[in-house]
Amino acid sequence: MSYELKEPDRSKVKPPHGGTPSHNSKPAKLPQLRLLLVWALMMAGSIGLLLNLYRLQVDQGRLLEGKARQQQMVSLRPFVPRRPIVDRNGNVLAVDRPVYTLYAHPKFFKISKQKMATILAPLIGKTASDLEKLFDKKNSGIRLGRALTEDVADRIAAMQVDGLELIRQYSRLYPQQDLAADVVGYVDVDHRGQAGLEYSQENLLERAVRTIRLSRAGNGALMPDHVPEGFLHFDDLQLQLTLDSRLQRAARFALKQKIEQFNAERGTVIVMDARDGSLLALVSEPTYNPNQYYNFDVGLFKNWALTDLYEPGSTFKPLNVAIALETGAIQPDSLFNDTGRIQIGKWPIANHDFESIGARGMLSVTQILEHSSNIGMVRIIRQMKPDLYYSWLERLGLGQDVEIDLPFEAPGQFKSQRQFTTSAIEPATTAFGQGFSLTPMQLVQMHGVLANGGKLVTPHVVQGLFDSKGQMHWQPRLSAARPIFSPTTTQSVLSMMESVVREGSGSNAQVPGYRIAGKTGTAQKASPTGGYYSNAKITSFVGIFPVESPRYVVLAVVDEPKGDVFGSTVAAPIVKSVIEALIAIERIPPSQLPESMNSTQSLPMN
Predict the structure, then answer these.
(1) pLDDT at 5
(2) Which of 32, 93, 344, 578 has a Cα-to-Cα distance from 464 of 20 to 30 A?
(3) How far from chain centre, in Å, is Cα 90?
(4) What is the reported pLDDT for 606?
(5) Which of 171, 245, 278, 314 is catalytic?
(6) Whole-structure pTM value
(7) How far is Cα 272 from Cα 552, in angstroms, rounded to an integer?
């Protein structure tokens, strides 16, 4: 028997352990896929990072840089004191000074509250018991005092006790107190000017300070190495005024005396150098202390010599005479019949003393001013056509602003040309200073025209910015002086006004040895509702001196004095006192008086 050997069928043979036949196995692809996936994710992440980097560095680069600078930098604008205000002689009227606010933090006290109160009380002007009560209210942030001086702050700091904090600030100090408050004004708690020059000249009083940006460290502290050199240095300029404190003090004293004597409501005194309009004194009474402005009525913060209108009355008569002379309507030796009373349409006009004197008959222009004759003035003005008279009043500035460098000035009130020229009563009442209104400052400006030879100048109190060595760095630009009258006209009117002081109603303004021109005024006080108060007067006197070389205009106005009052008895003595002070301050030599001026005759007062 034979057997045949055959090869086994390997395809049917299974490897042990269920394995795959070796000739049918594939490469391990799973790790490769994982590697590819990781690579793809890394590439996508890298691309994303690159895109985000592009967005941050390019698209949003400037925005993010700005935010970073805001976090790393701080803007700082240091507090710089306002410039001082001084008078013409350098006397300080306003200045910033460092003051301190004291805070207590009882939780940090290392000594008892009773002992702390005992040592602090005499330094800050409080009682120990009051301080103990404050200490018991809370543990921190108790304000014990404000506006403490450097001396007091130094003494508190020298105690070296824990729990006290001094905060430095600047406060505006007015060393002369109420002397020049009407001019200087005051600043509020925010150090902003609210009245006077503190308000109108704030741009000159505030020093220019640039805001700087400083780097900040990680803990928020400023980095001093980035502070610009000299950024805290500031100029030593001060605002110098034309005022003279000595004259200001004399004028206020004389005014207060008469206000108290006659129980008047208020008053003002103005002294102007007619050459350029500079004001040597500007006083309003009653006034206030700018160091404690919060204790006074707000009505006192305005300077009524600039803000309130009144009818000037007879003090306007010399200006009307000048207009009539300049137009040729009258001559210095013209005569007019003073009948004591006349009728203009349905309105009667009379002299103030008609009941006692009656008609005076023929008077010269000088005598009309001496007696303050209303009838004589009406007859003078009627020599001109109303439209011509109106145009001259406008030329003189009636109804316009003075353009002074102090705030809140009120323009005068004057009828329209149509009203003035179509009603005969308007020129008639204007002839003796009624029917229109102006401020005391504008009346001074107008009389300055008579004093300086015919030019209208701008009243002002700011002389300029000066450094500590007296060098001028800035001065105001004033309107050019405007010619109004000829020197011949003004000299004629001054001679007439000198006669008023020497022979007429202004005799109470005489100063022995000096030639003074002037005019009294006793006007009815206009009512806001129309007409005039029956028992209220405004008395005034305007003086110009020295007549031989006229320079100074002095005006005193007293509102509602009580009793039998006139400009000659109330206001003229004030002007006399001010002129006497001015003579002493400026060392003005006596006038050379003509022989005819050695005698004085008193006439009825007005």
Answers:
(1) 44
(2) 578
(3) 19
(4) 56
(5) 314
(6) 0.79
(7) 6
